[in-house]
Specification:
hydrolase; FAA hydrolase family protein; six-stranded mixed sheet; alpha+beta; Fumarylacetoacetase-like_C; single chain; 32% strand; metal-binding; Fumarylacetoacetate hydrolase, domain 2
Amino acid sequence: MADFVIPAPAVPTIPVEGGGAFPVRRVYCIGRNYAAHAVEMGHDPDREPPFFFQKNPNNLDASGRFPYPPHTKDVHHEVELLVALKSGGTNIKLEDALSHVYGYGVCLDMTRRDLQGEAKKMGRPWEIGKAFELSGPVGPVQPVAKVGHPDKGRIAVTVNGQPRQEGDLNQMIWKVPEMISYLSEYFELQAGDVIMAGTPSGVGAVERGDVMDCVIDGVGTLRVTVV
């Protein structure tokens, strides 16, 4: 074992429904994976090659509280399906991709939209808008043995009881097996990797005190309060 010169950071984890914890290695997020959301963000919804950005593993948080972040006046909710991998590899065949999935969950990709927009205009990376502290509220991981491999079902979020986002998992442009196979061509996927599978249309701003209620039929629910 290495003789660390400072205390080793804790391993980020997500609780698992029924007990235990899922250790997180990397977090891959796909952009504009629902046609209607691509349109609302000003892009053509045609099936162009997918693109990904990353959050940090310790951005994921299951506390149910989202601290409003600094240096922004426009924080948006983006409800997404979370895909948790139990194994990986490179150049994974499409037909084998789902065998690498441990389970699924409900998550939010919270976004400092104003800072992301500035980064886009300047051709810079998005991390300042996407990968800030506690920017990935998550619910418990549901094992495949319990929920199967959901490829359809309502995905939605309300804010203070008012509908905001709503779509269906079958509207994803790139399906879960395709995302896994594509990513494995560019990265060596491993156990503990997480994929956030994109968001439907209806993204919008939240303020301190707002309560976001998220649901993915057949997967679960997630309630998060902005503090």
